Description:
The protein is an alpha/beta fold. The protein has a single domain, classed as 3-Layer(aba) Sandwich (Rossmann fold). 32% of the residues lie in helices and 23% in strands. About 6% of the residues have low confidence. GO terms for molecular function: hydrolase activity.
Amino acid sequence: MIQHSIKILLIFFCVGIHQLMGAQHQELYSKEYFVHQSDTLKYRMLLPEAFNESKQYPIVLFLHGAGERGNNNKSQLVHGSKIFTETVNRGAFPAIVIFPQCPKNSYWANAIVDRSSSPIKLEFPLNIEPTKPLDLVVKLMEEMVAKPYVDQQRVYVGGLSMGGMGTFEIVYRKPDFFAAAFSICGAGNPDATTKYAKTTPFWVFHGAKDDVVNPQSSVEMVEGILKNGGTPSFSLYANDNHNSWDSAFAEPQLLPWLFSNKKIKK
Length: 266
């Protein structure tokens, strides 16, 4: 009985230590707030090791999925934040990384969402104002990129699920702003690709078994980019469901590809 109790305590202890270590990297991201008029955008920021304002660094914007929405300025770090804090990556790719958080009642992209079927049905109307969270993100990034220590030729964006949709949308709204972008299990309006197909290199990821966001959505976005003169990379994982971000983040070439891109000067 005593041995059984000790065994249970050890299990809980090990689980607790594992969870603590798993979240420890998140503490490297400072808690920040961007205020514009009466609106506030919460975000987390990672600076390069030995950050020096006299140097210039690339900057990465990452947009989280719907499950990480809220106001705790923490949940947005659940997926994707660890890849940027890994020792090898931090040493090889010193960068400023921004993780904003979208409120529960909103989205990054202007999306008409029909959840009556699986996968969900999505429409993305064009030529309308951005959502308030995305508008705040744009204003934040414009302010950040104006800093003397940010390399304006190496501004990147990526996201997963709702954030993948937001990635397509923010590049549509700022087609000359980003040097490269990646979307994981996202969706968008293929007609919008006329704005950025030739100016923004894309790597698109999706799981072939995704029963939340139809993988056909990514196929259509890739087709749109190709149709309009772009040359996107596309990874479709045969056995992945909606969590294709696990496979995407495990791609050894993701960060080398991302940081190798520089903005095309006109």
